[in-house]
Amino acid sequence: MQLHSLNDQVFPEYRGVFGSLYSKVSLLTLLAFPTSEAVLSVSERELTDKIASLCMSRSDLWAKEKAQKLRDAALRNPFQHNRYKSHIFNLEILIKIVLQYQEQLSQIANEIDALAKEIEEYKILQSIPGIGEKIAATIISEIGEIDRFKDAKKLVAFAGIDPSVYSSGKFTASVNRITKRGSCRLRHALYMAVQSGIRDARKKKTTEEIIPRNKRLREFYDKKREEGKPFRVAVIACVNKLLHWIFALLKSGTTFQDIE
C-alpha cells in the first residue's frame, strides 16, 4: 500500500503501463524511470531498448508497445515536475525492498519445490491431470500424513467441502452450503486443480484435437451439469471426487490412471 501511495504522489499514470505494478519488469522500469520527467528525457527507442533488456523473454514489439504506453502515461501524468525529491528517493527505496522481498520468496519457493520432489506423495499427486507442482506442494503441506484420516469422508470434512445441514425444529433445509470449516488453502488448491483438469486442451501441439486434461473428471463434471447442477455446485462435486481419488492414491501409493 505504501508503494501505491508514493507512486500516486509521483507518477500515478504509471499504473496502467504494465499488467501488474508489482511484476518484476514493471518495478525495474519504474526504478529506472520513476517520474514523467525521466521518461520524457529519453527517446522512445531508448525506452524500448531498456524495457526489452529488462524482460528478454518478450518480443521487441511488446517492448515497443510498453514504451509507447509509458510515454503516453508520462504525457498524461498530472505531476510533470516533482518538487519533493524525498518522494522519489523513498519510492526508489521501496521498489528495491519489494524486489529483494520477491527474490527471497522465489528462492524459498524453489527450495520448497526441491524438497517436495523428494517426497513420493508429490509424484503421486502430480500424476493426476490438473495438479501441477505448486498445487501438489500445497495439497501435501495442508493434508500432511494421509494416515491421519480414517477415510475419504474425513479428508473431505477437513477440506471443508462437506455439506452443512441446517435444521430447526421440524424444518430441514433442502439446499445446503459446504461448511468451509477446514483449510481454505487446501480448498483453493483443489478448486484450481479441478478447473485446470476439466479445461479443454490440445492433445499435442502438432494437432488440433481438443480434449480435457482430465477425462475422468470432465466426464463427472459433464454428468453433473446434465443433471441440472449449476457450475459452482458441479465444481464442488468435482472437488469432492478429486479428494476421494487423492485419498485412495495416497493410501495405496499408486498413481492416477485416466481414461484412454
Quick description:
By secondary structure, the chain is mainly alpha-helical.
Q: Please, could you describe this protein's structure?
A:
By secondary structure, this protein is mainly alpha-helical. It has helices at residues 2-10, 24-32, 36-40, 44-54, 60-76, 85-116, 120-126, 133-143, 152-159, 184-198, 215-226, 231-252; strands at 167-168, 171-172, 200-202, 210-212. A two-stranded antiparallel ribbon has the order 1-2. It has a two-stranded antiparallel sheet with strand order 3-4. A hairpin with a 7-residue loop joins strand 3 (200-202) and strand 4 (210-212). Helix 10 packs across helix 12 (231-252) and helix 11 runs antiparallel to helix 12. The radius of gyration is 25 Å and the shape is elongated. The protein starts with a helix and ends in an 8-residue tail after the last helix. The relative contact order is 0.09. Keywords: Coiled coil. Residues 98-125 form a coiled coil. InterPro entries: RuvA_2-like (IPR010994), Transpos_IS110 (IPR047650), Transposase_20 (IPR003346).
Low-confidence runs: 165-176
Structure class: mainly alpha
Gyration radius over CA: 25 Å
Strand content: under 5%
Q: How does the major sheet shape up?
A: 2 strands, antiparallel
What percent of residues adopt helix (DSSP H or I)? 55-70%
Mean pLDDT: 86
Number of strands: 4
Overall shape: it is elongated
Strand order of the largest sheet: 1-2
Q: What letter string, H or E per element, gives the SSE order?
A: HHHHHHHHHEEHEEHH
Q: What number of structural domains do the residues give?
A: 2
Measured distance between first and last alpha carbons: 50 Å
What's the total helix number?
12
